[in-house]
Write a structure and sequence with these properties.
With 386 residues, the chain is an all-alpha fold. Helix 4 packs antiparallel against helix 16, helix 5 runs antiparallel to helix 9 and helix 12 crosses helix 14. The protein is globular.
């Protein structure tokens, strides 16, 4: 494939990873600031929950954003996104009404989609034969942001107040400026932009990848959703200590950063299918060990689970890009929409199971569901030859 003839462009890939970090720090502001926004705007919990849904709603446009990125210069989608996310997310504390807050979050959601759909395509173009390593570097920026972002938001409000932290948008604007200087003259297109491939044709060409990955994503989402959405609640119910729940979630995310950083590179040497197999066998076993163990063994299981679960993302992104043909951004957009739908729907189902049968049962169901994805790894294609 053509991207495999390009040397690994480490400086450019690290710059995009840093931009990913800056961008995702801003996109993580909502959750930690939600209690203050609820108090300021006198929101109900239903209204508060709807904010996150509105912010994620543009993910449904991912395939169309990808299709557009395949026809025009995709670098400008990525260049502008840190600024376009930083501005509305820095202004949420100034929102005078619930309606204005919804508009700001919807704009940020569009920018988030604009960044995450084409950016992996740029990484694939610059990574050459080491697509997995490039995806690992890129995704590490996002995982670190999800760890640091909430702390950043709380610190900014503590120092400057909810309505006073808006100047922090300058960092995102500066990031877009740096990306513009570096990538404005770089043409990363490799196909004929005049050739228009429909989304249906893109899906048809990619169905041998996307259909197995859909099942794998659903299986992974059960485990990922239970560990991220309900981990502090589960730990608190077991220990009565809310601080242990926060520590557990931090450990899970830190282990995930390590998994994301290493898994893509490992998959370049071991193969994508083998790396996915290791992750999808190790993750359910880690969940079971987490549920049935205690003390230090439980936290070791938590670290293993974080490493295994989050390590699948760069591997799957690399797999999609290696087989995307003339529609790499559209293919990535379809994949990301599927991932969003799987994650959103499964978290609700896990909550229903937990309400009826308890969190421990929900974790056991999640581990069993995780095993379902393993046979579908065999349906994925093997190594792409250089």
């Amino acid at each position: 494939m053509r991207q495999q003839q390009t040397p690994f462009q480490a400086a450019e890939i690290l710059l995009l990873s840093l931009a990913h970090f800056v961008h995702d720090v801003y996109s993580s502001f909502l959750a930690p600031l939600l209690p203050l926004l609820i108090e300021k705007l006198s929101m109900s919990l239903t209204e508060a929950g709807f904010l996150s849904a509105v912010m994620q709603l543009p993910a449904l446009l991912n395939p169309f954003i990808g299709q557009l990125a395949d026809r025009v210069s995709l670098r400008y989608f990525v260049i502008l996104a840190p600024m376009l996310t930083a501005v509305p997310m820095s202004l949420i504390g100034l929102a005078p009404s619930y309606g204005v807050l919804l508009i700001l979050l919807f704009i940020a959601g569009i920018s988030i989609a604009m960044f995450h759909v084409p950016a992996p395509v740029m990484i694939a173009r610059m990574a050459g034969a080491k697509t997995g390593r490039g995806m690992s570097f890129f995704m590490t920026g996002g995982e670190l942001a999800r760890t640091v972002g909430p702390l950043t938001a709380v610190a900014l409000v503590a120092l400057m107040g909810l309505e006073g932290f808006w100047p922090v948008m300058v960092v995102g604007i500066a990031a877009s400026g740096i990306l513009y200087r570096r990538f404005r003259g770089v043409n990363l297109a490799f196909h004929n932009s005049r050739r228009q491939t429909s989304l249906a044709a893109t899906f048809a060409d990619m169905r041998h990848i996307l259909l197995p990955l859909t099942v794998i994503l659903l299986a992974r989402s059960f485990m990922h959703g239970s560990m991220t959405a309900f981990l502090p609640v589960f730990i608190q119910s077991q220990t009565g200590d809310i601080w242990q729940g926060g520590v557990a979630l931090t450990l899970f995310e830190v282990a995930g950063v390590a998994g994301v950083l290493l898994a893509g590179s490992f998959s370049d040497y071991l193969g994508r299918r083998r790396m996915l197999f290791i992750s999808l066998v190790g993750a359910p076993l880690s969940v079971l060990l987490f549920v049935y163990s205690g003390d230090w063994l439980r936290f070791l299981a938590l670290l293993s689970c974080g490493f295994m679960l989050l390590s699948t993302t760069p591997v799957m992104l690399a797999l999609v890009q290696e087989h995307a043909g003339d529609s790499p951004a559209a293919a990535n957009g379809i994949f990301m929409m599927i991932a969003f739908l799987a994650r959103s729907s499964v978290v609700v189902l896990i909550g229903l199971i937990a309400d009826r049968s308890g969190l421990q049962t929900a974790y056991l169901v999640s581990a069993a569901a995780g095993l379902v994805g393993i046979p579908f790894i065999l349906l994925l294609p093997g190594r792409v030859q250089s």
